[in-house]
User: Which sequence fits this backbone?
């Protein structure tokens, strides 16, 4: 359950800065631990410690259930794509996004700031250049989750 707590506490709680050189945002973990994106170590157990191993497997199962529900139920609400009959707001330069990565451990998706938007022939944003704490990435908007409050 600590892993679920970590995922929720790594989300921004204040409006984010418009300065592209300032990628750090205020999160509950930043307030509690003075750092964000803290890692939770894997368990180390002895073969004789059957109860602790069973408990650890149960906790991992619950964390996996949470992560699957998080991806299936919550993230789509951040990626709303209404039908073309209604106008919708596109991702803009300066927005804070969660970059959905396929082969990344749960809770380790990078947070980034959109530094450039790439528009399709129809005039809508189709991909973005996103600056994370490690690098700049080009991702389609289907792999970006606009965080609430980034338009404040």
Assistant:
């Amino acid at each position: 359950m600590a892993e679920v707590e970590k995922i929720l506490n790594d989300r921004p709680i204040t409006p984010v800065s418009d300065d592209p050189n300032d990628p750090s945002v205020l999160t509950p973990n930043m307030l509690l631990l003075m750092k964000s994106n803290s890692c939770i170590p894997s368990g180390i157990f002895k073969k004789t410690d059957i109860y602790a191993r069973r408990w650890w497997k149960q906790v991992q199962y619950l964390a996996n259930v949470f992560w699957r529900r998080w991806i299936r139920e919550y993230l789509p609400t951040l990626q709303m794509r209404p039908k073309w009959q209604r106008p919708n707001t596109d991702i803009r330069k300066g927005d804070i996004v969660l970059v959905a990565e396929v082969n990344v451990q749960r809770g380790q998706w990078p947070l980034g700031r959109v530094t450039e938007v790439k528009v399709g022939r129809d005039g809508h944003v189709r991909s973005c250049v996103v600056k994370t704490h490690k690098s700049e990435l080009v991702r389609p908007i289907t792999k970006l989750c606009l965080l609430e409050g980034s338009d404040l």
